[in-house]
């Protein structure tokens, strides 16, 4: 029966009508309805309840009108990495061709030695999409066949690029949305919605590569909440989580368009600042520190000042890898803690 997802039969006198199909159910078992709570995108839900006396039982009729899941906006065709380096990453195919390769300048950059710098290209040609190998050492394959000439892609085609496998998803496929949601789950911290540590580390590698190549500055701030343990101990972890959520929003609010904000540990955040000289990074960190100190947090309903300490390091000769840059920012953070907290320190 179509309504069986929503309604479990029971022996009490409650009748439930989903659409036009009636069935008898225990009202408590009927609500919350698993199918509805799972599908948060039900666009319209009108519940009409009438209670009538049917002999010895009260009868409640519940009628649900739904247009089904919200129709997503039209989506362009795209490729999604479904295996290997870059797992979950997606490139939409708009008017401009999409370059896939190891080069950091590629539209879909796969930093793996099995991938050539310019591996293959995909572009739109009217309503279809075409793919071309660009002379890669490990020739691009489509559905396991080496790509010798330009080929038209079909929905679901598997594209092998070195050791990564990509899937082509045609325009308007709902599958693109599924991959996007999975990707968000993989890269975001669920508490703050900032990037998680793993994705942040990938971004640091990428931005260091770009900054070194172009001789541009890059700064890293590591931000740690001061004396957070007593907040948890006094108000409990749920209130502590709320503080972290608001802290995440403040960190994000101080990030510019290209900056990368992340939660990299329990009460530790980071801001990666591309094209940002050390002086500017210090000014930004100081604004963030002051904003946090001015914010009134109220864990457990009690107004409370909470502060942060920030350590900053910039890219420099001998400090041009993720580990050296993060270690230097950590050293500066340690100094900020030991010199009284609620301050910004730099590792020059
Ligand atoms: N509520 C909450 N607490 C967390 C989370 N992750 C880590 N913590 C807590 O954060 C606290 C960190 O405490 P410490 O590392 O001792 O540092 P602190 O008390 O902040 O002191 P300083 O860093 O020296 O200023 C611990 O109590 C952890 O349990 C989380 O996700 N939620």
Automatic annotation (TrEMBL):
Its EC number is 2.7.7.65. It catalyses: 2 GTP = 3',3'-c-di-GMP + 2 diphosphate. It comes from the Bacteria. InterPro entries: Diguanylate_Cyclase, FHA_dom, GGDEF_dom, Nucleotide_cyclase, Rev_trsase/Diguanyl_cyclase, SMAD_FHA_dom_sf. Residues 98-147 form the FHA domain. NCBIfam families: GGDEF. This is diguanylate cyclase. It comes from Thermomonas fusca.
């Amino acid at each position: 029966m179509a309504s069986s997802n929503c309604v479990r039969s029971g022996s009490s006198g409650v009748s439930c009508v989903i659409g036009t199909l009636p069935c008898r159910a225990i009202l408590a078992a009927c609500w919350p309805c698993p199918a509805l709570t799972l599908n948060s995108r039900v666009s319209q839900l009108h519940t009409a309840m009438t209670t009538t006396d049917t002999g010895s039982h009260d009868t409640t009729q519940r009628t649900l009108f739904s247009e089904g899941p919200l129709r997503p906006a039209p989506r362009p065709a795209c490729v999604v990495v479904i295996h290997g380096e870059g797992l979950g990453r997606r490139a939409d195919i708009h008017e401009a061709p999409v370059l896939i390769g190891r080069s950091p300048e590629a539209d879909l950059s796969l930093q793996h030695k099995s991938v050539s710098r310019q591996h293959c290209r995909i572009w739109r040609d009217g309503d279809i999409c075409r793919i071309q190998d660009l002379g890669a050492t490990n020739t691009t394959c489509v559905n396991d066949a080496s790509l010798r000439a330009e080929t038209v892609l079909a929905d679901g085609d598997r594209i092998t690029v070195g050791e990564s496998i990509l899937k082509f998803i045609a325009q308007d496929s709902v599958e693109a949305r599924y991959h996007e949601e999975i990707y968000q789950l993989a890269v975001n911290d669920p508490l703050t919605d900032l990037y998680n540590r793993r994705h942040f580390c990938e971004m640091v590698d990428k931005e260091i590569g770009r900054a070194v190549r172009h001789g541009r500055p890059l700064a890293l701030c590591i931000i740690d909440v001061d004396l957070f343990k007593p907040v948890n101990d006094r108000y409990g972890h749920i209130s502590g989580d709320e503080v972290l959520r608001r802290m995440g929003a403040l960190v994000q609010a101080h990030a510019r368009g290209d900056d990368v904000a992340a939660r990299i540990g329990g009460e530790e955040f980071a801001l990666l600042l591309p094209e940002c000289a050390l002086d500017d990074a210090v000014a930004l960190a100081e604004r963030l520190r002051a904003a946090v100190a001015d914010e009134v947090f109220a864990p457990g309903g009690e107004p409370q000042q909470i502060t942060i300490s920030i350590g900053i390091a910039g890219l420099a000769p001998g400090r041009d890898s993720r580990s050296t840059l993060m270690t230097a920012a950590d050293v500066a953070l340690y100094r900020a803690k030991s010199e009284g907290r609620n301050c910004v320190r730099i590792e020059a």
